[in-house]
Design a protein that fits this description.
Layout lengths: L7 H18 L5 E8 L2 E8 L7 E5 L10 H9 L4 E4 L6 H16 L7 E3 L9 H5 L4 E7 L2 H8 L5 E5 L5 E3 L6 H13 L11 E5 L3 E3 L2 E3 L1 H16 L5 H5 L5 H10 L6 E3 L18 E4 L5 H4 L7 E7 L7 E6 L5 E7 L1
Parallel strand pairs: 3-4, 3-6, 4-5, 6-7, 8-9, 9-14, 13-14
Antiparallel strand pairs: 1-2, 10-11, 12-13, 15-16
């Protein structure tokens, strides 16, 4: 995950930030003649406008996609004249350190101070994020991570703060043209990177009356078994499973998976570990699938980060549902708009 999105996909985001910054810098004219008639004479002023940077920017990296989630803030600040301090997650320093090193090379080649963009690495034992964020000279903060820390950053006075925080992704299975392909696609999305993506599905809502398909109605238990079978088939495929799942970045995720199996509901599929043939010491966990009652909103309304699927038999939907599906560079999908 640290490197897969660090090439062209991350560069796409960097280029988009540069283009947006360039557009803003050229939105207003740099100079203009102001002419005001005053009866027998006119007053003329030659006016000039200059874009003024806000100040020092810090980009706080995340542990799962350190490059993909950092370059937008880095280049957005650089193109608008703000020096950048990149504070990587202590568990994912190397990928973004390589990016910062390349940026510094380009700055030197153009006779600019390489410290315009610099790395501020820390450790789990002595973290410096709050110290940096609260510094009065820091005016721009870009953060990807949990909602608790994101909300703290947003509450800091005198800062322009951009955050990507916790997300809970839900799938409403109202109907399907091909339920088998749908189950296979959802199983893949759940297993991809062991569910450690912002677009990974967590909650699966199936109508009480079943899922409408051209071949008939597929009831809750039938779909649950299809999803489980597809997950198992993918995981047990030695040419696909280890490489789709990858590794679990944080050991806390393993604890979350174990806790999910203790949730109040039927466990359709337990998580298990296996040995990755290329990385024998890798931390691996397969998806867990649990049935949760629709009344247990306190369970499925919060993010359970990792390969955790919650299946809920939901009341009948009214009206027609239309979903706009957006592809991610990794091949995963996210529902970007849902209308009823």
């Amino acid at each position: 995950m640290a490197f897969q999105a660090s090439g062209p996909h991350a560069a796409d985001r960097a280029l988009e930030a540069i283009a947006a910054g360039y557009e803003e810098l050229h939105r207003f004219p740099s100079k203009a003649l102001w002419d005001k008639p005053m009866g027998k004479f006119n007053i003329q002023l030659n006016k000039e406008w200059r874009a003024m940077p806000k100040g020092i920017s810090i980009v706080i990296g995340c542990s799962t996609f350190p490059t993909w989630n950092s370059v937008t803030g880095i280049y957005g600040s650089l193109v608008t004249g703000n020096p950048v301090i990149v504070k990587p997650h202590p568990g994912a320093i190397l990928p973004i350190a390589l990016v910062v090193a390349e940026i510094q090379k380009v700055l030197v080649e153009n006779n600019l101070d390489p410290n315009t963009c610099q790395l501020a690495a820390d450790t789990f034992d002595k973290m410096i994020t709050k110290e940096l964020a609260e510094h009065p000279d820091v005016k721009v903060i870009d953060f990807t991570g949990n909602s608790t820390f994101g909300s703290y950053l947003e509450a800091l006075p005198g800062k322009a703060v951009f955050t990507e925080k916790t997300g809970v992704n839900s799938v409403i299975l109202d109907s399907a043209e091909d339920i088998d392909k749908t189950a296979a696609n959802l199983a893949f999305s759940l297993a991809l990177y062991s569910g450690q993506m912002c677009t990974a599905p967590q909650n699966f809502f199936i109508p009480e009356g079943g899922i409408k398909t051209p071949g008939g109605t597929v009831m809750f238990d039938q779909f649950a078994q299809k999803l489980v079978d597809n997950i198992t088939s993918l995981v047990d495929n030695p040419k696909a499973g280890p490489f789709v799942l990858g590794a679990v970045q944080n050991k806390k995720t393993l604890g979350r998976i174990a806790d999910a199996e203790k949730l109040p509901g039927k466990v359709w599929l337990k998580s298990r570990s296996f040995e990755n043939p290329l990385f024998k010491n890798a931390r691996v966990a397969t998806p867990v699938v649990v049935e949760i009652a629709s009344s247990k909103k306190e369970v499925f309304s919060k993010e359970l980060f990792g390969p955790i699927a919650l299946l809920t038999c939901a009341p009948e939907f009214r009206g027609e549902l239309t979903a706009v599906v957006q592809s991610e560079p990794s091949g995963n999908c996210a529902v970007s708009e849902l209308t009823n």
